[in-house]
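re: ur question from earlier - yeah i can do the single chain one, its not a big deal. heres the input i used so u can compare w yours
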Amino acid sequence: MNNSNEIIVTENDLVEMMLSDINPHTVTMKDTVTIDKYNHLCSLFLFNDTIDVETPDDETDKYNKAIEQNWFMPDEFQQFDIETHVLSLATTSEEKQRVEQELQLYKERDMVPVLKFLNYLVHTLRQDGIVWGVGRGSSVASYILYLIGVHKINSIKYDLDYKEFFR
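and the output i got, formated as tokens:
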């Protein structure tokens, strides 16, 4: 509790609440950072239970923009040079060319933060010994996602068109 007798919760507290019988809505979450973390955790756990944040109409756009930029990952992953990293993972000239082409499309669509988050997610899954699928859908057309470890389908080997992922 803080000085105003409000309950302060951490991300771990929120996860515990989500995985137990405690209803997180019974906890007063006034600060938007805690609510954002809860909503983010809901999306990660595929729970359809988010909390709306009341914002004044003139601040809604500013608030939404701030949320879009917050990926809730450690600074080391937010500051990580993902472009240099994936280029270093490509070994042949064909692979490097493919990575450069895909990177251009990720940049054009302002999706570099997505790559950083996926890198963090894969790192966390590996660190915690969590197994995930081989890959599915159009994402397997992205060679960069293969290099990061999101899926295990080598799109160059199977001659998959990376543009399918960006449609």
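The first helix runs from residue 11 to 18. not sure if urs matches, ping me
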